[in-house]
Structure formats: C-alpha cells, structure tokens
Specification:
By secondary structure, this protein is α+β, with helices and mostly antiparallel strands. The protein contains 14 helices and 24 strands. Among the domains are: about 210 residues, FAD/NAD(P)-binding domain, CATH 3.50.50.60; about 70 residues, no CATH class. Helix 9 packs antiparallel against helix 10. The model has no long low-confidence stretch (mean pLDDT about 95). Bound molecules: flavin-adenine dinucleotide. The site of flavin-adenine dinucleotide has 34 residues, from helix 1, strand 2, strand 3, strand 9 and helix 9.
Length: about 475
C-alpha cells in the first residue's frame, strides 16, 4: 500500500500547525494543506493558560512566546457604576505547571512560530493555497482531492485530521452534526494598536453594564481589545460604523492613542461535534467544538486536543497500536471541553444581561457575596473522561515542579514517564522531590505513569502499571 504521508492535516490555524509540530516530534510524516497563503493576519485569541505554555515548552517555543506575550494579572467583572462584582487575582492562583496561570498574546505571532516548527521538520510538508475539495476513505486510508495553483491533486494518507475551523468542510463532508448549548450572542470585536498604554486599564475587565455589556482586554505587543455586545434590535452594520465605534471607545480615554486594526462582528456560541472520529478521519480544534470567548479557551482547547491526539496517532502508526486507541480521544477530551464551554457560557450569562432590572438583581447578589467575603470560584481543572486512564488519579493533570530555572519536563524529556516514589531522591528527580513527594503521599502512590500529554495514566506498582499500559497502548 503506498501513501503520500502518514497523516493529512487539513487547515493550518494554530491547531493544525501545532499538530504538525507534535507529529514531527513523534517521527510521523504529515502533509498539511491550507487554503490561504499566509496566517490569518488579525488577532482572534488573546489569552492562553499555563498548560498551553507547558505545551509550548515541549515544542521549544516557550521562551519565544513568553517574550511575545504579557502575563495577565487581574480579571475583574464590574457593574455599570464601576463596583467590582467578582475579581480573579490570577497570579495568586499559581499553577501546577510552574508557568504563570494566564498570558495575553497576539495569535498571528503564535501561528507564525508554530508554522516555523513544522517547516523546519523534514517530516512535514506544508502546502499553502491548497483547498480540500473532497475526501473518500476505505479500510486502509484516506484519499483527498486538493485544488491549488497546479490544479487538482490526490493525496493518499493513512489518517486525516480536520483542523479546518468552525465551518469545517471535513466535518460537513462527513455529515457530522453539532450539539448546541443555545448560547448565541452577537458582539462587535475591536483590536487596536495603542500608542500610549499608560492611558488604558492594566486589568482585563468585563463591564456588566446592561446599557452595553463590554469586555476590555490587555493584549501583548502594544495592542488592546474591546468587545461590545449588540443590543436587541441593533444591526451589525450599525455597530461597524466608524462614528459609532469612536463613540463606544470614548469613555475609555483612548482618543488619539489607539488605531483600529480590525473590527468584526462575531456570534459567540457553544457547540460540540457529535463525533470526533469517523473511521480514519478525526476532527480537532474549532472543527470539533466552539466556545464563547469569556474564558479565553477556544484555541487552548484545540491545542489540548492535538496534544492528546498526536501521541495516540504515533502509537497506532509507528508502534502498531490498535486503532481503537483513537476512540479514547473523544471520550477523554469531550468532558474536558464541555466543562470549559460551560464555564465560558456561565461567565457570558453574567455579562450579557441587557435588562436593567435583571442586571440590578445580579449586581446585588454578587456584591453581597463579595461583602460576605466569598471569593470568586477558582477556574476548574477538569479531568479527562474515560479512556486511557485507570481509576483513581487517572486523568488528572500532572504537575511540573521547577527547581530554580530547571523544569522537570526538560529534565525527564518527551514520551511517557514511569516515576516511582522511591526514585524521587535519586538523580535526575532529586531537585524536584520536595515538590513531588506531597503528590505521591496524598494519593498513596507507589508509582505513577504519566502520559506524553502530561495527564496521569494511573498509579500502582511498577508491574501493574507497565502491564496495564502495554495492554491499552501497545
Ligand atoms: C473574538 C474571538 C476571541 C477569541 N479569544 C480567544 C482566547 O482568548 N483564547 C483562546 O484560546 N481562543 C480564543 N478564541 C478562539 C480561537 O481563535 C479559535 O479557537 C482558534 O483560532 C481555532 O483554531 P483552529 O486551528 O481550530 O481553527 P482556525 O484558526 O479557524 O483555522 C482553520 C484553518 O483551516 C483552513 N481551512 C478551512 N477550510 C479549508 C479547506 N477546505 N482546505 C484547506 N484549508 C482550509 C482555514 O483557512 C484556516 O486557516 C477567540 C475567537 C474569537 C473569534
């Protein structure tokens, strides 16, 4: 059987580009086709979290992304009168990966860095200005027809991953429907280049003003974002009018210090594809799920998808694992994705209230909670759903201790780890023992097997873990 590549990746947004980079590290060959010639030039995602920074660390671009982003310190919900309804001190929350909990960034810069990783690998072939037209699969592989400057071309791959965004032609071709949370709010999004950041807020703000729910977000690299909800009866063209935008920005002391880089109307919604695998074809990123942006997690979820999927594809393609392993991709990731979408929708429902009486009730309730000393609930740290995880701590996120500048993942390297409690005092783990020991003690673990995506497979004796892992993954 002859193949052009192991995996055909359709779409080179952040999720497709990261998948290519991850597959290359696993020794898997990929062709990636992208209909556009360059990265989408305008910022969409503005935030990523510590777990994503740990993924960038694995890919070797953490320092580059740290330099290009800005640590987010405070996230506040305020009412129309400026009173704080809910406040997250993001720094104080800390993070299990050792990185800052939240970063603000510029999506095109990340996409350029991810594409460079893929371009640098001899295993990855990036083909721009190539549009997927059709797909057909059989028991052994997938054949895709791609149209481009040289005319139509067929590509034969063992597997195909649709990272082709919210409208996903791959998902459409497979006839896969989506379950919809019924959250559907139109917002105007404005990205601005700022000449004098000292005039603008340094915290990320949700202004819960029923007269105009508004988000105001610090970005990196001299940018700021505002998002304004459309009120009942307003038309997109009304809000996109320059005079209207100038009026919306007036209260922000931004006159003469911001230059609008883009303005767009988006409908914020929550949707999850019913099936993420169909035979030899899988979906990842926005093709598989979409979330309102209030928790800054859409792209983050897509990047977690491909971190989950890449090592499983490698196990099937390179080590002969049963393809049924790939069914665990959706069972593990979907509950996690849904927890994140539900959090974002809950946040959105707090913000998107345009009825003054309902807003007054919300404000009174939230102010009373703050006066009673109730802190904002911590962000959830969802576990994986059932799949390649054992009972107990299986599916939990495994921490990364730092010893000074030394980070455990760099020391232990790629792939799964089997760590015994007894080995904590020996090299190379000794510098991290003090921080890791409580993890073992609190779970009564003799040993832990940590997967390549840094989620826990399970705890137990070395023999039990090795046997259980071999049964599921080999
Ligand atoms: C206003 C806004 C704010 C956001 N804020 C955040 C945030 O703060 N944090 C966060 O994590 N996420 C955020 N997101 C979400 C984030 O931008 C998306 O989740 C992310 O871009 C999805 O990446 P993707 O690679 O799955 O899809 P996309 O980035 O949409 O990439 C899909 C690619 O597939 C290509 N393609 C499509 N069809 C074909 C075809 N037939 N052939 C070849 N190529 C094709 C497209 O050209 C595109 O390049 C935000 C989104 C918006 C709109």
């Amino acid at each position: 059987m002859s193949y052009d590549c192991d995996v055909l990746v359709v779409g080179l947004g952040p999720v497709g580009a990261a998948l290519c980079a991850l597959l290359a590290r696993e020794g898997v060959t990929a062709i990636a086709v992208e209909k556009d010639s360059d990265v989408y030039p305008l910022p969409r995602a503005a935030h990523f979290d510590h777990e994503i920074m740990r993924l960038f660390q694995k890919l070797g671009i953490a320092e580059e992304m740290e330099a290009a982003s800005q640590v987010a310190r405070v996230y506040e919900f305020r009412n129309a009168a400026g009173q704080v309804l809910m406040s997250y001190d993001l720094i104080a929350q800390g993070s299990p990966s050792g990185w800052s909990p939240s970063y603000m960034f510029h999506q095109p810069s990340l996409e350029v860095a991810l594409r460079r990783l893929a371009t640098d690998s001899p295993l990855i072939d990036l083909r721009l200005r190539r549009t997927l037209k059709s797909i057909a699969q059989d028991a052994d592989g997938v054949t895709a027809t791609i149209d481009g400057p040289d005319g139509p071309q067929a590509i034969r791959a063992r597997w195909l991953v649709g990272c082709d965004g919210a409208k996903s032609p791959v998902r459409e071709a497979l006839g896969i429907g989506m379950s919809d949370y019924g959250f559907d709010e139109p917002w105007l999004v404005i990205d601005a280049v700022v000449s004098d950041p000292s005039r603008l807020p340094t915290a990320n703000l949700q202004i819960c003003d029923p007269a105009r729910p508004t988000s105001c977000l610090v970005m990196s690299q001299g940018r700021h974002r505002w998002e304004f909800m459309l009120l009942p009866g307003e038309l997109p063209e009304d809000l996109l009018d320059d005079a209207m935008i100038r009026g919306l920005l007036k209260p922000w002391n931004s006159e003469d210090c911001v230059e609008i880089e883009r303005k767009a109307i988006y409908r914020f919604h929550g949707r999850v594809a019913n099936r993420w695998r169909d035979g030899r074809i899988l979906l990842a990123g926005d093709a598989a799920h979409q979330t309102p942006p209030f928790a800054g997690q859409g792209m983050c979820s897509g990047l977690r998808d491909v971190d989950n999927l890449a090592w499983k594809l490698a196990a099937v393609i390179r080590r002969g694992a049963d393809p049924a392993l790939l069914d665990s991709y959706q069972t593990e990731r979907e509950p996690h994705v849904r927890a994140v979408i539900e959090l974002a929708i809950a946040m959105g429902r707090v913000v998107c209230i345009s009825d003054p009486a309902a807003a007054a009730m919300r404000d009174a309730g939230m102010l009373a909670q703050r006066e009673a000393g109730q802190a904002a609930p911590p962000p959830p740290s969802p576990r994986l759903g059932p799949g390649i995880v054992l009972d107990g701590p299986g599916g939990e996120y495994f921490p990364q201790p730092w010893a000074g500048d030394a980070r455990m993942d760099d020391v232990l390297g790629a792939g799964p780890w089997l760590i015994t409690r007894a080995s904590l005092t020996d090299a190379p783990l000794a510098p991290f023992a003090e921080q890791l020991s409580p993890w073992f003690e609190s779970r009564g673990a003799e040993a832990v097997l940590v997967r390549a995506d840094r989620y826990v497979f399970g705890i137990g004796s070395v023999d039990t873990l090795e046997k259980a892992w071999a049964e599921r993954v080999s």
